[in-house]
Structure formats: C-alpha cells, structure tokens
Amino acid sequence: MTKKRWITKAAAALAVCFLSLGTAAPAWAEEEPTEETQEQKIEIQASADITSCKIGNDKNTVTINAVSQGDMTGTDGRFYLFEMKPYEDEIGSRRDFLASGEGNSFTWTTSLDHGSADDKLYSKFVVAVYDGEDFVQVSEPYYITNPEMIAPNQAAFPYSATKKGLNIELSMLEDAFDLGVKHVGTNIAFHQILGSGIDYTYDGKTYHFSKDVIAQYDKIISALSGKGMTVTAIVLNGWNDATPDLIYPGTVKSSNAFYYLFNVATKEGYDQTRAIMAFLAERYNGSNPDHGKISNWILGNEINNQQWNYTGEWDLTSYVKAYQKAFRVFYTAIKSTSANDRVYFSLDYNWNNPQEKDGKLKYGGKEIVDSFNSIANDWGQIDWGLAYHPYPCPMTEPEFWNDSQTGLISTDFNSPVINFANLNVLTDYFNQAALKSPTGQVRNIILTEQGFTGVDAARGDIQNIQAAAYAYSYYLVDSNPDIDAYILSRQVDAPSERQQNLGFGLWTCDMNQPDRIVAAQRRKIWEVFRDIDKKARTLEATEFAKEIIGIDKWSDVVPNFRWRSLENR
To answer: Where is the secretion signal located (predicted)?
Structure first.
C-alpha cells in the first residue's frame, strides 16, 4: 500500500532529529513552509504489508510481522506500528506509535491487555511512516486472526449423527425429538438485549441488559441444546428508537427494511456491540445447562439483499467493508470465548442474478463472497463460513428439478441462481484454493433456511410433491461432504405465509388462529423427514418420490449417493 504525500526536505530532516530521540517533532518543526523556504517536494513511495498478527502462546502478547518495500525518500527512514480501534479510519495527529524499526522486515510484539481499558483484542494494526509533518499510514489495517487462543472454552465442536435440521416451535419440542432433529435455528433480536435487570462488566465498563429478554433466550436455547441438538443462532439487528447507537451512522429508518447493518463505526456503537456479543457468547458457551449452548452464529440475514441488512445505497466494496468490520467484532467475541464455535454470514439463492442485483441495495451472492474473502486477505484471513438459503425458484413451486426451465440455473460459477438444482456449483466454487480456510480446508457451509410448499394456489394440496422435493434435496445434501447441516423451514406452517399460498411446514396450521402458530395436521413430509436419515427405513420412506420426480434410482440423480449400496440389494 503506497501513500503519496508532498513534504519538504527541510521538514523531514528536522523530524528525523526529534524522532531519533524518541520524541515527536514540536509544532514549529511541522509548520507549513513559506514560498521562500519551500524546496522541491518529494513523493512518498514507501509501503508495507502486515503478514500476520497473532496472540502468543503466553496469551498476553500480540506479535505482528510486516514487510516493507518502496523508496523511503521523504521519510525519516523508519516504519512505525500503530494500534487503531475498529471505528478509527485514520491516524490523524496521533504520535503514540507502539513500535518502530528500519529495514525490510519487522517482528513487533506488544501487550494484549485483554480485560482492561487498553484491550487490544479487537484492534487493528497499521504501519506508518513519518513525513516530517504527520505519521502517514502505508499498510492495510490488519486484525488479530487467532482470538481462539485465549478462549476459556476449548471443547470440540459438537458432533451430530446426521445433517437433519428443522426450525421448530418450542411448544412442539417433543414432536421435534420424535422426528430426530439434530440441528435447529433460533433468532436473537440484537436490538432488544439492552435494558435492565442484568449488569455485565466488560473491559472495566458496566452495561445493562434486559433480564426478561435474556430469560426467554435461556428457555429456548437450553431446551434445544438440552435435547442434544446443535443450535444455530441468527443474530438480527432490528430498529429500536431506544438504542440508536446500534444502527450504522447515517442510516434512515426504512419501511422496506426488516433489519439493519450492525454499527461498529462509532465508539458508542462499537462499545455496545462488542459488549452485547461478548455477553451472548459467554452466556451460551454451554457451561450452564440452564442457559444452553449455541455452536453456530450467523451475523445478519441474507446480506446480499439490504432489505435484511439495511444501511442505504452503497457500492459493493464499501458495503462489504462496513459489514466485515462488524463481523470481525462478533467473530472475535465469539471465538475468544468458545474456540471452536463457528461464525457465518448468510446469502439467499441469487448468486449472480442480473434481475436481482443493482449494485446499490442488492448484490450477487458471488460478489459478496469474493469481496468478503478479498478484504479478509488484506485485513487478516479468518475462519468464516457460509449460511446459504437454496429455496426452489420460484418458491411457490416445490419441483426444483424443473428450475432449469426458468433460465436462471446453470452449471458454471456464474449461474444466476444456485439452489438444490445445481447445489454442487456452490460447493465446487468453495473448493477453489483461493476460498479455502486459513488451514486449507473447505469452509463450513450450512443450509439454514429453505423449504418446499405443500399448497399451491392453482393445484391445491401438493403435499406429496413437497415430500418428494424434501427427499431429493436431503439426499443431495447428505451425499455432499462439503455441507455440514440442512435446517428445513419449518415444523408448522406460518399463517402469514399460508395467506400467500405458501405452506412450508411438516404440519398444517390452524388458520382460525391467525395470530399464533398452532399445528393442525401432519403432512406426508413428516414421515419422510422422520425416516430420511435412518438406514433401515430411508429408501422405503422415499420410494414414492421416484415416480413424482421421474427417476428409477436415486443414484442416477444424486452424485455419490450415500445409500447406493442399499439400492443395489
């Protein structure tokens, strides 16, 4: 990264004298030169790259490695390391560098100070040069990439026997248990956490959280994880007039927005956001069975569409940078508490759909992935994952195997839509070396919201087609080694969706109670869901679906079909 700055040779020489003594140049040495004293100006060409930033084995220090390049003319010949908070974008007039050095490579060590007002756990670090007037940043910011080093909870990620998941109703937990649900999702309303009743001190500052709201999450999460389910939390930032600092600065409330971009761009927003997330990560770390355990964390919903993550019209790069700054705060809070928890961002199925992206409020999922990964390469690569939503296209028709007729499904990496019809395109894309995790593994991918309607405006009850679609889709996921979980939406129809002729549930709902979700009757999909992951019953449970889909064997349409050996008996 090269920064251009015009200075005078005389000012630079004066600055060198003071800096060599470890003292910042006084004001008189930094005054603008007059026309009489102005000499030929020099363009700074120096640049630096931070190559790693990690907490040491002692858990109390941070080691930063950097390399430099370019002509040092116009500087004092030294490079300087600065710490910046996530909400800081420039060094400005600061003189409080952490370390300095000369040469082409550097290894600097500083204290972590975790748990104090000087905590550097969430900080970013930059390299600068001194031009005789100011310190000028010449590197990209770089964050600590191994916050898991200090996590009190080092337990392994919980093992699940199958990938089968469901968004359930807490009142129907026994039904979910009978169904053999292994993965479950739950929403956390980030904007409702602040309140009263619970005092929480973080880095020496006390915050106040709503006892009533947290009690509800305790009840839900402990009930789910207590049944041996792997819990995925979707953290959503709604609008709350009482918590303006949680909303990204300059954002105007929109009637078209359901949720809003997290704010770490101001000190107040950063402090509150960091404290809330640290509290949630600690409370749901599994140490207290009355609180429960969250293992997967999703930050926001379908971030390629600002309807779900609103901040206003932005170009892609600016939008993703703002989101990633917040993501890193969440990631650090989570991983520094439970080392093996997983952290994701979420996308809908519009992968590269020109009909559904405008570069201002809607972006292609592929663009988000590529931009997020590129920025992470510059700022310090971390173990982020993807939560994907491969609904059929359109959502009103469950027969995804016919979706190629829309013209939106292809088998190349630029497919407008990626859903169950071409799901391997997504995992093939993530198998590229450039997208793999820092340890060289394919990133964690989970499917956290998708379903198939059992009703149709024209055809009426189509529950057999719904069940066939689920069987086919589950086999595709179950036989794909790069997808970790499949959470179906939902256990019971939602009355609001039924009014739009959509019925995604394993159960129909009682439409005489439109303000509540009350189960009425089981659909065919209930039995398929129950038996789909059981070796002794899976093929029998899905035999009916072959005629609906138009196939003779599952292995003809499911690559590496898991139960192929059973088919041939």
So the answer is: 1-29
